């Protein structure tokens, strides 16, 4: 049990107020870490309020634009005024433009750049901002959240007739057929390789840098046709539950993985083994 204990550890979770990020915050708190939930969205949902009440003095919701280096430096100053160390850094940011589900030929450069910013540039900036602290203390664990679509291409047929564009973007283009966005794959694939680069670069400082690539995660607002289409391609026959990423997070954040770095841990129910 001591291998997995995060007592006296300080964890920063970027994108921590998102769908998966909330799970990561909860998991880290349950294993005794002090958690800073860093997000541009600081709306206090029921889950967030529950964590604030359950873990007084151990959980803080921090408003930050992770795409703005100056704002990140402001947050670093704020955290260092309260903490002596930063032990764990989790990058779970993401972004989708309003034309995310258009055919590839119709995707704008602006849309492409939004995808790269949220999924690759923000992790770059967050790591660049906080890794000097880890270098000085000569230890740390960085975990980047990638995706199975950083490993494989999308089967575009599973998106036919689904409602994803109505859920995940603010404006839904009036189209009958939706497609996945190439910038997401490009950024998530880049994040995996970037993780390996950083693991090699900072190994001498005892800083471990790893990656988690989740498969599709169940969300109750997704329509049944998409869930069915996706689940048929998974050996375990279903989408993952949000809390099924927690074990991977705690393993990579804790001393249980003290000799693991540069690794991409795929948690996908077997989706990518075919």
Give the helix/strand layout.
Layout: E1 10-14, H1 19-30, E2 34-39, H2 46-54, E3 59-63, H3 69-80, E4 88-91, H4 109-137, E5 140-145, H5 164-168, H6 182-202, E6 207-214, H7 224-231, H8 246-253, E7 264-267
Parallel strand pairs: 1-2, 1-4, 2-3, 4-5, 5-6, 6-7
Can you give keywords for this protein?
single chain, 274 residues, alpha/beta, Rossmann fold, seven-stranded parallel β-sheet, 7 strands, 38% helix, globular
- What's the CATH topology name? Rossmann fold
Low-confidence stretches: none
Number of domains: 1
Q: Helix count, per DSSP?
A: 8
Q: CATH superfamily, called what?
A: NAD(P)-binding Rossmann-like Domain
Name given to the CATH architecture: 3-Layer(aba) Sandwich
- DSSP strand (E) fraction? 5-15%
How can the largest sheet be summarized? 7 strands, parallel
Kindly provide the name of the CATH class: Alpha Beta
Q: Which structural category fits the helices and strands?
A: alpha/beta
Give the CA-based shape.
globular
Report the span from N to C terminus. 35 Å
Which whole number gives the mean pLDDT? 94
H-E order: EHEHEHEHEHHEHHE
Number of strands: 7
Structural notes for this entry:
This protein has 274 residues and is of the alpha/beta class. The chain has a single domain, classed as NAD(P)-binding Rossmann-like Domain (Rossmann fold, 3-Layer(aba) Sandwich). Helix content is 38%, strand content 14%. The protein has eight helices and seven strands. The chain has a seven-stranded parallel beta sheet, sandwiched between helices. Helix 4 links the parallel strand 4 and strand 5. The longest helix has 29 residues. The protein is globular, with a radius of gyration of 18 Å. The two termini are 35 Å apart. The relative contact order is 0.15. The model has no long low-confidence stretch (mean pLDDT 94).
């Amino acid at each position: 049990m001591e291998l997995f204990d995060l007592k006296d550890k300080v964890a920063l979770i970027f994108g921590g107020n998102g769908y998966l990020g909330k799970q990561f915050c909860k998991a880290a708190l349950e294993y005794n870490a002090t958690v800073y939930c860093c997000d541009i969205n600081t709306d206090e949902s029921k889950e967030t309020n529950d964590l604030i009440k359950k873990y007084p003095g151990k959980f803080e919701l921090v408003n930050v634009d992770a795409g703005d280096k100056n704002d990140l430096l402001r947050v670093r100053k704020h955290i260092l005024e309260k903490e002596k160390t930063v032990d764990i850094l989790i990058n779970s940011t993401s972004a989708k433009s309003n034309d995310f589900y258009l055919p590839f030929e119709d995707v704008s450069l602006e849309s492409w750049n939004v995808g790269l910013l949220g999924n690759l540039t923000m992790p770059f900036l967050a790591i660049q901002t906080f890794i000097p602290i880890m270098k000085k203390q000569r230890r740390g664990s960085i975990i980047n959240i990638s995706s199975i679509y950083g490993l494989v291409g999308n089967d575009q047929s599973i998106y036919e007739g689904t409602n994803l564009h109505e859920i995940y973007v603010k404006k839904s283009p009036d189209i009958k057929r939706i497609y996945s966005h190439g910038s997401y794959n490009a950024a998530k694939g880049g994040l995996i390789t970037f993780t390996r680069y950083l693991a090699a670069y900072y190994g001498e400082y005892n800083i471990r840098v790893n990656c988690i690539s989740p498969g599709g995660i169940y969300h109750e607002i997704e329509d049944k046709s998409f869930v069915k289409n996706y689940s048929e391609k998974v050996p375990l026959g279903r989408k993952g539950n949000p809390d099924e990423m927690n074990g991977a997070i705690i393993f990579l954040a804790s001393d249980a993985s003290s000799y693991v770095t540069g690794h991409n841990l795929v948690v996908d129910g077997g989706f990518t083994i075919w």
